Amino acid sequence: MNFKKVLIIFALVLFIFGFIFTSCQKKTTAVGIVLPTKDEPRWIQDQTRFLDALKNAGFSAKVLFS
Q1: Alpha-carbon dihedral 6, 12, 13, 18, rounded to 10 degrees
Q2: What's the Cα-to-Cα distance from 37 to each of 2, 43, 56, 65, rounded to whole Å?
Q3: 31: Cβ–Cβ under 8 A, 6 or more apart, which residues?
Q4: d(CA 54, CA 51)
Q5: pLDDT tens across 44-59, in order?
C-alpha cells in the first residue's frame, strides 16, 4: 500500500472513533448564578431554591455571591 493511502485510512479511523466518542458523552448544561450577599437570610434561601430547581431540571449549577 502507498504511504498516503495508509495515512488517509488512519486519519479516517481516528475521525470516526473521535466522532463516536464525543457523541456518546452525556451533555450537561452549566448554569451560573450571582447573588448580591450572604448577609441576609433571603439570599441563602434563594441559593437553596435555585440549586434544587436547577438540579431537578437536569442542570448543573454554581451560585456565587458578590
Answers
A1: 150
A2: 67, 7, 25, 6
A3: 54, 59, 60, 61, 62
A4: 5
A5: 999 999 899 988 888 8
What pLDDT, in 10s, does the model give residues 22-52?
666 566 668 888 898 889 999 999 999 989 9
**Per-domain boundaries in the chain:** 3-65
d(CA 13, CA 53): 42
Q: Are 35 and 63 in contact (CB under 8 A)?
A: yes
DSSP H helices, 1-66, are: 3-24, 41-56
Cα Rg, the chain, nearest whole Å: 23
